[in-house]
User: Fold these one by one.
Assistant:
Number 1:
Amino acid sequence: MDDVQQLTATITEAFRTVGHQLTLPRLLLQFGLIVLAAIVGTLAAALIRRRIDLATLAVGWPSFLREFLRLLLANLGAIIFMLVVVVMRAALISLEITKHAYLLGIATSLVTAWVVIALVAGLIRNQFVYRLVAVSAWTMAALSILGLLQPTMTQLDSMGVMIGGLRVTPLLAIKTSVLLMLTLWAANTASDFLERRVRNAADLTPSLQVLIGKLIRLLLITFAILIALSTVGIDFSALAFFSGAVGVGFGFGLQKIVSNLVSGIILLADKSIKPGDVISVGENFGRVGNMGARFTSVDTRDGREFLIPNEDFITQRVANWTYSNDLVRLFVKFNTTYASDPRKAQTAAIEAALSIERVLRKPEPACMLAAFGATSIEYELWFWIRDPAAGVANVKSEVLLALWDTLGKQGVVIPTPGPARVIYELAQEDKSAAPPAAGKSPFPS
């Protein structure tokens, strides 16, 4: 509590001193010049940006030069402000209006630090990390310029609590948080680059590519955390206090998460499911998309993606349509009347299947006589496709439509219920009704 009161008193005294100094005429003059320089810099930067077309100016430039030019234009107002303040400060000193122009000097240093930090940190693509690095670096630079860096660090380090064998202070928390964010960002960036290289390796299977990518990411993130903690001076033996709680958390609260993580690694290792496979698990049927640490996405071709926990692929029965090869056999059923020749029906069915582009010629389609029903003969038409990811129901529909046309041409009759026959006969009496394909009725006479 005494440390907090002391810090509060120091800050209050600093504000009181600054407030008194700002009432002096020479400081008021410098403050006014700073405001004027800010207005000049803003207007001049806006005018220059209107006259410069970045896309046209940087045509053919290397990517890093285009990015540097973009950063220069983005910080043009601060650069012009800095130059104007430097000129104003030199003019005040040369005219002996003031000896040092202390306030203008501080403003110049602060803006210079901001411009340099913005140009360097601007190369970071992640906007959150960019803002974090820029604000943190400029805050430290500002405190150093004002001579407050060491006192601030001392005050932040003077307040702390003991947790196990570790003394936690605000300074330690800030340093650890900043370093963790930076190292984790660097680890993710490096792992993304390495994962792209692994995915471009043609001699690796898709499942092995995903497994290697996940292992690389896990190792880099682990190293990033260890490096950040060791850099700020945390003794890992002091973290032994948390080992019991972490073990209990993994045993109870994180049970499902760990189970899904281990299941995902097993799936990638044994190659039972890999990206691009066509699977059905439970009521879900579709193509395997992304295999994450916790879940696997299955695209159902209707605009939805099911995110199925990896554990379900281990504990449930999964049908992988493309496990060993991409050949898939489908079948459709149909009936004919006893008055129709079954051999003609089989020939017409095979002809109908072969007329569909997605149906393979080898293995050849086959039509089997399944049973002699009470009122009709039952058949099963088998055929093969190689692209189940493009859909199964649609190719069945195409085969059935082709079967309807082909059976009519061969004179094979499809039996229909009584009401349907009546409707058809009434339609035939109407001269405006369209005749069936090939001029023959598909209904029994």
Number 2:
Amino acid sequence: MRVFLWHVHGAWTTAFVHGRHEYLVPVLPDRGPGGRGRARTYPWPETVREVTPAEAAEAEVDVVVLQRPEEVDTLAPRWLGGRRPGRDVPAVYVEHDAPQGRIADMRHPMADRPGLLLVHVTHFNRLFWDAGTTPVRVVEHGVVDPGYRYTGTVARAAVVVNEARRRARVTGTDLLPALGAAMPIDLFGIDAAALGGIDDLPQDALHDAMAARRVYLHPVRWTSLGLSLLEAMHLGMPVAALATTAVPETVPPGAGVVSADVDALVAALRRLAHEPEEARAMGRAARAAALARHGLERFLADWDAVLAEVAG
């Protein structure tokens, strides 16, 4: 099957393109949001092919995977020679994010679009978004297994957040001073240097850096489900996380400490700073849970079923 999609979210797309299909990814000379092409910091298989606007217009496409509202009626027809998603070519819309705003106003941009299939990445998101009459499915996240790498020799917590300063309360950046009093924190991610952290690293280097830290800290108040959390669990890291959105059902008892009480997370970090063997045992439980629920094989099998349903 030929699948056309934009490179929007690097970690999610990396897992998605490890499937058994051919993937056509738009590319523009500036490699901006309208055409990033192949990833440069993630390893992608050779089945991912960059296409220019001229090539896309002539390409045979079995299904379009959409991820932003502007792709549906503007970008996709422009790139695909006038073919409209959901009418001229089968289409899936992937919603990566949890809704924002008042609960009564959480209506999805693709609501009441029967020609599309809306796919959420968590059951929490499906619950909160109002899709109207648009058919909906859930395909929970999966990640490429980086392997067990945990050493925990550095008695510090790793936090991976992109644009942490701009999204301070959403990502829990404002909580880091209190949490850091219990265990020093290393912040990784895009624009992390603005807060004294380490800017975006290649994926393999980031995984090694994370796995050297004692704990993975997930202070995010409101997000879909951070893929860095799942990667940390795959690495074998114990977790200290806010009990928000899909986290409580992702991190089982024994894999870490999950609580909406910041003081409880402070206490957990302080304890794990002095209990490396407890941290290691938690990390092994975290890895087992992540492989069972968020392994790549399950993720790709679920997506194969969705693509076959849409393409007919």
Number 3:
Amino acid sequence: MKRAGFAAVAVAAVLWAAGGTYASRMIHEGASFLELTEARAWGTALVLLVVARVRRLPPVDRPVNPALVVLFGCSIAGANFSYYASLSRLPVAIAITVQYTAPGLVVLWAAVAERRRPGGRVIAALLAAVVGVALLSELPSAVSSGHLRVDALGLVLSVVAAFAFATYMVAGEHVARAIGSRRAVLRGFCVASVLWVVVQAFRGRPDTLLSPRFWPGIVFLVVATTIAPFLLFVWGLERVRASDAGIVSTLEPLTAAVLAFAWLGQSLTVTQVVGGLLVVAAIGIVQVERPVREEVTGAVG
């Protein structure tokens, strides 16, 4: 089942990349990135509520802390919003690289809060993934060009995105293992939906959501790039650790680069190819089975 968990996380990352590419196209056509984020949350919550009503999921025996569910839902909303907001103020290279320090934050959390020392395999995979993402986003070229503009608020937003993504993985792992992936995603998106209702109440008329020309794209984003990948990712978190899932999720920027090459006609540089190979290597490393001794003695103290 562990291999299936890794596969689910990888497919989720690919779908997220496709969603990001498609959303960027919609934003270029005049859609509001905030309202697209809201639509994804509302649509996902509505569809999953209907499915849960029809299928009548059996009750669960294990209770889950409501505060953890709220944290999970808020982290979903926070990660989506802060990442897209950071993209509006920062070069993509910086925004993506900072966001994908999230797996490192998860490893740090496990070491400090859960007293679980990361093994050499995890550290090697983490370093390869972070360096690979930086190369994929062409961060070295952006720095060496001397034209790199760093907006202070944008940098803060990208850091918030990284922490929100890490929180999503850690909280999602605990909630999913307590009540299952479908219930976890449903409850998380219900929380996120309520949060976005409050936000939109202050913003006023949601022009993007009321424009018929955006409706097909919104449906695609909800079904193919939100419901499916979130269910897959959280299902994967039931079977693999959040730190490992975070490393595998770096497949998302690699997929985005490949999609830009295939769909948008953008070229892939040698630097990006090397970065992609590092990401693939990281994903391979993290799937190597731990020795039995590491599972027994891996915790500190």
